[in-house]
Amino acid sequence: MYHRVRSNKVVGRFLHGFFIGIPFGITLCNIIGYVVKVEGSSMQPTLNPDLPNCDYVFANRWSVRTQDIQRGDIVVVTSPKIPSESLIKRVVGLSGDIVRTLGYKIDILQVPEGHCWLEGDHTGQSYDSNTFGPISIGLITAKATFIVWPPKRWQYLYPSTSNRNALLYLAKSI
Known about the structure:
By secondary structure, the chain is of the alpha+beta class. 23% of the residues lie in helices and 29% in strands.
């Protein structure tokens, strides 16, 4: 009898933890952020510099809700062509910016209102706005803010406009 009562308490605690923990974890991932594996070479050398070893980054959802997207930010975006997939790219141009493209159907274009221009850091190895055009800001789900794995690569991902692709945007004043 003693073991039966004790096992019921253990099961009850487990179920209580399960039914509290799972919704809490889902809420945490949806509001604060989550860790995501970066695959491929499109963001080299910033991410995945030593493939086949992949970087894992913290995808910060909170920062997208509380801060404006800026040129140079690395963002997680829902693919405009395959909505079940996510892409990680750098913001090169924002609404109103004039962008020089790399192989898009127009050489120079103005980014429409409510959109941005995204590119991978590894020119020619990236499925980005040069393929599918400007994307809606609403497709941005998070900012990649930290490399969390492997430990030797731990670092904050500062917005950068120093790479070749990020320098392609032209000032609004043109």
